[in-house]
Amino acid sequence: MAVPVLGTMSRHVDRPEIEQVADVISSLGLTVVQLSMESAGVDPMPGRLPASTVARIARAFENAGVRIAAVSGTFNIIDPNRDERDRNMARFIELCATCSGLGTRVVTTSSGTRNPYSMWRAHPGNHLTDAWTEMVDQTGIMADAAARAGVVMAVEPETANVVDSTARAKSLIDAIRSPGLGITFDPANFYYPRDLTQMAETLEAGFRDIGRHIALAHAKDVIAPPAGGTHCHYRPAGQGLLDYPLYLRLLEKSGYTNGLIMHSLSEADIPRSRDFIFACSTGL
Questions:
Q1: Which long-range contacts (CB under 8 A, 24 or more apart) does 14-22 make?
Q2: Which of 254, 260, 209 minimizes the C-alpha distance to 238?
Q3: Which end of the chain is less crowded, N or C, counting CB atoms within 10 A of the terminal residue's CB?
Q4: How far is CA 267 from CA 15, 37, 63, 223, 273, in A?
Q5: pLDDT for 53-66, tens place per residue?
Q6: Contact criterion met (CB below 8 Å) for 181 and 146
Q7: How far apart are CA 37 and CA 95, in angstroms?
Q8: In whole angstroms, what is the distance from residue 30 CA to residue 169 CA?
Q9: Is the dihedral of CA 186, 192, 197, 202 positive or negative?
């Protein structure tokens, strides 16, 4: 098995200057990054940035030998606060236009939730028809904007959001049918507690459903919640139940090449997760 091109989210390396962030990521033996805009001292959803800021970010990672695999553009696309949703939608469209200057073609996002407090918390309304319809409408607008900018919006299936399974992700792709829509593939997100006993089956189904649409791959781990919990908890890669040897084999077989991004971890966790993933890829 080939050794994966490994990276992390820039927000897991907290330094005052973007050049320092890039240098630390490189020093950890990583060669790709998912750029969180707050790492560059700007708003997480800044919209289009001044050309000088874009050039500085791009230069920092280029000088460090780290490629920007994706930019985080995640917001709650069905936010019950419509004013906030619409502001972020406009900023997302502007952010897509910024990507060419950063040397990337992927902007990550979510499918949203009706939860008014957190876009990563579930809500009963997520399974209602109106939530699906609004999510599809919003995704269509975003995918069109991404395609016009020559990038891909990578929606992340997540049990707390409207697209809470790979089957629903496939339904979304079939509904939109746009070159501007792809997937952030994070298999730890695919598991409700009941699915943890079907580790291989769930992973294999994920690749069957959406494997050919992967724009960005993530690496974290999953564990069962405390007794009575309805959603799994997440840990750094190598500290949970995910079958990483199988995941890496299937990811390689899919033909995906844009790098594997570690997250849900601290900077101190990175070496351990990095070494675990490399060991799984080499069969050690």
A1: 14/267, 15/39, 16/41, 17/41, 18/56, 18/57, 18/60, 19/60, 19/63, 19/64, 21/60, 22/60, 22/61, 22/63, 22/64, 22/66
A2: 260
A3: C
A4: 11, 17, 21, 21, 10
A5: 999 999 999 999 99
A6: yes
A7: 10
A8: 29
A9: negative
Confidence class of residue 85 from pLDDT cuts 50, 70 and 90? very high
What is the C-alpha to C-alpha distance for residues 88 and 163, in angstroms, rounded to an integer?
19
What is the DSSP-derived secondary structure letter of residue 245? H
Question: Count of H helices and E strands in the chain?
Answer: 8, 10
Question: pTM for the complete prediction?
Answer: 0.96
Q: What's the angle, vertex CA 154, arms to CA 150 and CA 160, rounded to 5?
A: 155
Sorted by sequence, the CB contacts under 8 Å of residue 20 that are 6+ apart come out as none
Question: 227: which 2 tokens?
Answer: 């007794």
Torsion of Cα atoms, 62 then 66 then 69 then 70, to 10°: -70
The residue written with tokens 């990038």 in the block is 151
For domain 6-282, the CATH class is: alpha beta
